[in-house]
Structures are given as structure tokens and as C-alpha cells.
Amino acid sequence: MKPSKGSLIFFAIIAGLILLLFIVAENPIPLLPPLIALALLALTSSAGWSLFAGSLVGVLLIGDGSVLLAPWRWLTDHLWPSLASTWHWSALIFTLLLAAFAAIVEKSGALAGLLAKWSRTADAGARSSRLQLSIVGLGLVCFFDGLANALMLGRVGRSLADQAGVSREKLAYLVDTTSSAVACVAFLSTWSVFQLTLIAGELEGSAFTEPAYLLFLKSIPTNFYCLGSLVLVFLAARWNWNPPPMSETSARSPKPLPTEPSASFSLPSAIGPLATLVLSVPLAFWVLGGKKPFPTSAADIQAAFGTSLGPYALLLAGALAIAGAILFFPGKKSAAFQAIPSGLTSILPALIVLLMAWTLGSTLGQLETGKYLAGLLGDRFQITYLPGATFVLGCLIAFCTGTSWGTMALLMPLALGTFLSMIGERGLDAAEVAPLLPAIIGAVFGGAVFGDHASPFSDTTIVSAMACDVTTTRHVATQLPYAVLASGCAVLFGYLPIGMGLTPAFAGPLPLIAIIAAVLLTRRRLARNQ
Questions:
Q1: Interior angle at CA 66, CA 62 and CA 72, nearest 5
Q2: Could you tell me if 198 and 409 are in contact, meaning their C-beta atoms sit under 8 angstroms apart?
Q3: Is 415 helix (H, G, I), strand (E, B) or coil?
Q4: From CA 206, how far away is CA 212, in angstroms rounded?
Q5: Which of 16, 174, 191, 237 has its CA 20 to 30 A from that of 133?
Q6: Where are the alpha helices (DSSP H) in 384-503?
Q7: pLDDT at 9
Q8: Helix or strand (DSSP H, E) at 181
Q9: Cα dihedral 200/206/207/209 (nearest 10)
Q10: Dihedral (Cα; 345, 346, 348, 351), 10-degree rounding
């Protein structure tokens, strides 16, 4: 599909910003692979080939420049190690299991019937809003894993979105935004232990002795980007708020819904598979990593989710989810098994793109692109501005590399290390600057999630686009204005006031108020243009 004018404009803006950095920075070679991949993606809409080209350029820059040896080095030094990684191959299999699960749920028609019942109304506009809110609500329920959320809701919601007059691009935005952002702030998810490990590792032996879990909870109100994104997605669903280029796709006539739900619809058949999926992830981690029959403290839960058997826990959870979907499948169980092959084949293009994204990430790791960008964070400002600088740098790293977890792993030690160094070198009172610590942690997490919403190299971005049957280019271009609004409000009304001396507790509501005001002020004008 040829990229729209809006897609090219938005990608041109981002590419121009990166190109400006490329021109003015010293030794900008580490930025060349993502810049080439981004430009090709904007021009061709082919995520797989664009990522492959970017990673191949990275291989040439890493090696001796030999074009003949580059494909072999790409295969042996980057593709194969990506496949050999335990978390990567388990993520591939887990994604296949979730695709099979989604196909069974889609085949049953039960969850679609539940969504249709919730969105059923005589007014077409209200039907669209009701369906969008239902998708957002289910996205909040699947708080434990971003990929599971995006894959399941995208597959199930496609036909309903067509019936309600909701564009596939808007559906992709809804499921993508309620995936990473929810998992990042959830008290218990596949993300949480990784986040806790980062916090605890950097503060060990410092003057700050609060438990990592408590610091994580305190960081949630200062994770302005994730919270703002969730408020914005609710408003965008409730009022059908579509800034360009999303507005170019939203004007579709809704198809008539059947007067009654499908005969296969029943509340147990709709809720049962979803409940099994939600419960299977924590159950699998507890079975493989728990040390006691029942958790009695936050430390027990943290230990269970921090098990080295995490990849296998995901596979067990996927198998349990499929078993639950088959168990609650209405009618003949043979139909459930027949749906599995279609689910597996439908996700294969997304898996190929994921592999290309990982190979690009591997080359960027050897080129130290992330460290290069992280080096832009200096200590030539007041310590109160550190949360804002951390967030902006996190956005840049996550956008260029496409990995939220990699951004967290790189930026957390840098940001907290800088924070601790500033305290020591400037003779600051640790107790006085302690309120900044949760804000810095929240800034790391929020900046990393921005990449999941704005980067065409992100796995959740790719899976969301594929699950909703839109191109990665189109999905990122239509989602980018929402991400830019949420990130801009986070900086201007959250981290900047903190830098000017406002406490994080008082700054917390300001970005959310700014987002609500922006939507209210533009709502009627955008509605007239649709």
C-alpha cells in the first residue's frame, strides 16, 4: 500500500530531527542504520525489508566494509544469536501460542458477541464510541503482558471495528496504547520484575534504602507519559478524537449489526477464555518460580516473577490459555482445533518482521547507538531537571532502537548513576532530593514506552499493526500525534515544572489536565473536518 501524504509528513519530521542530530553531532555513524531503515520504511511501507536493509548497513559499518561478507556476518553474528536467545525464541513461540488462542476465540464468536452486545446501540456514532471504549476496557484487563493484549484484541476486534465504522488504524492505536503503557505501570506483569531488578541493582549500597517495589509504586504517578497515554486513549475512544492523519481514515460508514448476538454467544464462553489467559501468566510464573505454596509477601511475588525460568513460564501460560479457549469453546471442539492453523499462519509475517527488528537491534548494540545517544545526557544542569532530561533521552533512544526493555536497561543505570554522582559531587542533602528519585525512575519507564508507541522498530508496534491488518508505516504515522501530545504534555507540564522546583506530587495532575484541555479545545474542530 502506498504511504499517504500524512504518513510521509510525520516520518519526514522525525527523520529530519534525526538527520539534524546526525549533522551536528560528533561521530554520528551509530545513527546511520536506524536513519536508513526509517527512511526506507516511510517510502516503501515494507517493515521487513527496511529493517533488513538497516541491519545490513549496520553490519557493513561494524565490519571491514566488505559487501560480499556482509550477508554471512548478518546471518551468523546477528540473526542466529537473536534466534538462540532464550527470551527471543520463547517470545516467538509464545506469540504463536497467543495467535492460536486468538484464532480460537475469534472462531467461537463469543468474545466478539460480548463486544457487540456492549457496543449495540441505535445510534451509529454512539456504537463506534461504545466499541472503542470496550476495546480500551479489555486492554486494561490484560495488564500482564503487552504482546498478549495487542495480539488478542487486534484479532478479535477487526471485524467488529469494520461493523462499527472504526478504522483499522484507530483499532491499532487503541490496542497498542493499552498494551505497553498498561504493562509498564501494572503492579504485577511480565515487565514488573525486570523493572524492579533495574531499580534495586543501581541503588544497592547507596543512601536510598527504600525497597525497590515501593520505589516502583511511587514512580507510577510520575510516569507522566504512560498515565497521559491512558487518559488520552480513553478520551480518543469516548469522543472519537482523531487528529490527522488518523482523521483521514476514520470516516467509514458502519455496517449494520445483526439484531441479536450470535447463537454461540454466552457469558461463560466469552469470559472464560479471557479469564484463563489473565490468570495463566501469574499462575505459570508461580508454579515454576514460587518457593512457597502461596505468596505471603511482595518479596515472594517478586521472586516468582524473577525466576530464570521466565521464558518457560510464558510457554506454559500460552498452553494453558489455549486449553482454556478450547474448554470454553461453544459447539464442537473440533472446530476449535481447526482454527489453530489459520492463527499460526496469520502471524508469520509479524514474526519475520520481529526477527528483522532484533537483528537491527543487534547491530545497533555493537555500534553502541544507545550509548552514543545516552552520552548526550551531561551534568551541565540542575539536578531538578534530571527527570526531564532523562525522559527526553529515553524517548530518543527508544525511538531509534525500537526496544523499550533495552532502553530501560541502558538508561536506568545512567540516570540513577548521574543522580547519585550529582548528590556526591555537589554536596547535596540526599533527604532533600529524595522526592526526585521516583520521578527519574518514572521518566526512564515513560521514555522507553514512547518508543513502543512511536518507533516502527518496536515489537509491540509491529504486532499491533499485523494483528489489526494495517501496515506498520500507517500504524506508526496515525499513532504518532497521540504519542507526541502525551510526551509533550509530560515534558512541558510534568518534568519542566519539577525542574523549576514544583514537587512531583503537585506536578502529577498537570500533564493529565493539559491533555484533557487539548482534546476539549480541538474536539469540535476535528469533528467538523471528519
A1: 80
A2: yes
A3: helix
A4: 13
A5: 191
A6: 386-401, 404-426, 430-433, 436-454, 459-467, 472-490, 496-499
A7: 59
A8: helix 168-185
A9: 30
A10: -150
In this structure, are residues 448 and 411 in contact, taking their beta carbons and an 8 Å threshold? yes
What string of DSSP letters covers 71-125?
Answer: HHHHIIIIIHHHHH-HHHHHHHHHHHHHHHHHHHHHHH-HHHHHHHHHH--SSHH
- Residue 226 CB burial class (10 angstroms; 0-12, 13-18, ≥19): buried
Task: Say which residues have a Cβ less than 8 Å from residue 528's Cβ, sequence separation at least 6.
Answer: none
Per-residue pLDDT reduced to its tens digit, 255-310: 554 444 444 557 777 778 878 877 887 788 778 877 766 666 666 666 676 666 76
| 84 CB-side CA count, 13 A | 8
Say which residue the cell 456492549 belongs to: 118
How would residue 224 be classed by pLDDT, with cut points 50, 70 and 90? Answer: very high
- Give the Cα separation of 275 and 321 in Å (integer): 9
Q: What angle do CA 517, 520, 523 make, to 5 degrees?
A: 145
Q: How far, in Å, CA of 170 to CA of 157, rounded?
A: 11
Provide CB contacts within 8 A for 336, sequence distance 6+. Answer: 104, 107, 108, 325, 326, 329
Q: Which pLDDT band holds residue 22 (cuts at 50, 70, 90)?
A: low
CB-based contact 336:328 (threshold 8 Å): no
Give DSSP secondary structure letters for 429-445. -HHHHTTHHHHHHHHHH
Interhelix angle 224-238/124-141, nearest 10 degrees: 150
Cis upstream peptide for 245 (omega within 30°): yes
Q: What are the distances in angstroms from CA 147 to CA 95, 167, 197, 342, 400?
A: 7, 21, 21, 19, 20
The torsion angles phi and psi of 291, rounded to 5 degrees, stand at: -100, -10
Position 193 scores a pLDDT of 59
Grid cell locating 39: 527512511
Angle between helices 436-454 and 404-426 (to 10 degrees): 150
